[in-house]
């Protein structure tokens, strides 16, 4: 596959991922029990919807048509409790950051790379907020010790 086709395929996968994540984050927002959780997930959901719109536009420019991935139904991941959802969100943000970095590496288009770099920066903000939320909400004795070690989130 040449770079153009590889980029189009990667952007289509990213588009599905963004739209799926937006649905997932609405669920996380609605079950959050403190302001920090609502704030982090409401903001991240809005960003993911913006990303989906931007990626749709990039694909329209690259291919000349609106990709079917912009409208196909998506199913959010299932998760157990809030902390499991949060761990999943953290994993997803790390994954998204890596995927965008890969796409930037293969893309020869300055406009695409600028857009993806901005999207990647948003994912970095989400990751930082979710990691802190995980420490506060999901690690025992956070307020007692104020000592934070490596978060108990599996790294990929
Ligand atoms: Fe995103």
Please provide a written account of the structure.
The protein has one domain: Up-down Bundle (Ferritin). With 156 residues, it is an all-alpha fold. Helix 1 (3-31) runs antiparallel to helix 3 (82-106) and helix 3 packs antiparallel against helix 4 (110-138). The mean pLDDT is 93. Helices cover 74% and strands 0% of the residues. Residues 11-134 form the Rubrerythrin diiron-binding domain. This is Rubrerythrin diiron-binding domain-containing protein.
Task: State the total count of DSSP E strands.
Answer: 0
Structural class: mainly alpha
CATH architecture: Up-down Bundle
- SS element count, helices: 5
Please report which band the strand proportion falls in: under 5%, 5-15%, 15-25%, 25-35%, 35-45% or over 45%: under 5%
Oligomer: single chain
Q: How large, in whole angstroms, is the Cα Rg?
A: 17 Å
Q: What is the CATH third-level topology name?
A: Ferritin
Largest sheet: none
Question: In the CATH hierarchy, what is the class?
Answer: Mainly Alpha
The named CATH superfamily = Ferritin, core subunit, four-helix bundle
- Distinct small molecules bound, one entry per kind: fe (ii) ion
- Termini distance? 27 Å
Number of domains: 1
Q: What overall form do the CA principal axes indicate? A: elongated
Question: Considering DSSP H and I runs of 4 or more, what fraction of the residues is helical?
Answer: over 70%
**Average pLDDT reading:** 93
Low-confidence residue ranges: none
Could you spell the SSE succession in H and E letters? HHHHH
